Description:
Number of strands of chain B: 0
Helix content of chain A: 25-40%
Order of helices and strands of chain B: HHHHHHHHHHH
Largest interface: A-B, 21 and 22 residues
Largest sheet of chain A: 5 strands, antiparallel
Order of helices and strands of chain A: EEEHEEHEEHEEHEEHH
Number of helices of chain B: 11
Structural class of chain B: mainly alpha
Distance between the termini of chain A: 76 Å
Strand order of the largest sheet of chain A: 3-7-10-8-9
Radius of gyration of chain B: 18 Å
Shape of chain A: elongated
Strand content of chain A: 15-25%
Oligomer: heterodimer
Distance between the termini of chain B: 44 Å
Helix content of chain B: 55-70%
Amino acid sequence: MGPHNDTAPLYRAETTNGVATSECLSVSNLEVSMPEEDALTQTASSLIDEGEVYEIFQQDQRDPLPHHGGNLRAADAELAIHYAREFYGRRQESLKLWIIPRSALLELRNQTPLPAMTALFGNNIESGPKPQTYAVFGQKHPGHPLLWLQDLEASEIDEVTLNHIQSMADGIIRLWLCPRQAILQLDNQDLLQPPLDRSYRRLDGYNIREKLRIARERVRAQRGAS
Amino acid sequence: MKKEIPSAEVVPAALKQPLIDLLLALADDEFILGYWDSEWTGIAPVLEEDVACSSIAQDEIGHARLFYQEVAALTSNNIDAIAYGRQIHEYRQTQLVERQRGDWAFTIARRYLYETADQIRLNSLANSTYLPLSQAITKIQREEIYHQMHVQVWLERLATGTTEARQRLEQAVDSLWPDALGLFEPDTSENILLQSGIITVPQAQLQQTWLMEIAPIFERFQLPLPPITGHLGGRRGQHSEDFNLLWEQMTMVYRLDPQASW
């Protein structure tokens, strides 16, 4: 993505019969984009079909809200859910996972006037009835994970609302939006909180401290006896 | 209504060895399969699959541990001695799980055959009169759901995938069927276990149920169907060359010093 040129129009709205076409999303002119891939992932992914990228949000007992945990690649949604459970739930750290294809997410970085949501989302979701509800995720500080902020009805989404969200709580530097229906939710407790003892999988599961204590006591007892 | 056996201490003498043999078969199946599957760690086809596969293998060994603990309660041996301290002919896994890892198609085909059979086996034991066993199985079944889902996704992916994927899968299934028919090998102590309700369904019937359940899937994917007879012997301690190799490797550390405390 090239540097933002202040004098160029924010986007070129080429419409055919009033319907926005893909020319709208000319990336070099637009601050609206997919969540970024860096140069390395772009090169690697062009060589092999590694599947789609899915962004994973997780929520555990202490969280009131889902937060971004990372992402993974999977061939399809079903495998994505399996892998999400492995990467973000194998130590029972999550009560709920949201698995969202990156293609369903839009990233917004600046506060200049935005085109209508239907124009933006028109190319990212399958044709059919337009989604009514969108999830909004925001990042408050660089390096901190995005948090789910709120849901918005499609009719509510406009520049004013988004500006309002951005100005909340010390300002939000990055926003993601996706249709609620694109979010795959995993909350099956058999999968996320399996019934068998898995403490051996946690870093603190193999209790060195306890074994050292027992060994010290044994040595002390032996010395005491001699 | 058959009488429940609430704990290891009250198992009637005549039932003890058959019950131990049953538990060892369950444990050894999971243990050996988990062992081979864990070899994929670091070399699975896809990074995410590496984690998934390793995790499933760990689950299997966790399930084996649960069964070994039940054996320990009946024999007063420690579970390390039970898991690693036996001679080759004392292990009771079916030969299906002791074949070497093979390629990805082989692993998936074997897991599919095993997991579908295991589900039927576990279902039949969920109401065992031996309560420690039925309780362990209830927990294990909740985890096995995920294993079954995972392997079904992969069977379908390979069966409907590229020419190479299909070829490898067909070859794998062909070579695995004789071993798979050893899963439900008839056992001499079956009658006494049935009478007491520790097991509720004879092996032959379990095998029928299993074959009837998976035949349509194999037909749909045009995969080879089973032959008439299979390789038996696993449950009687007769094992393949592959297991000799595995036994050497997996018991090596234990045999260096069986008395060591870990």
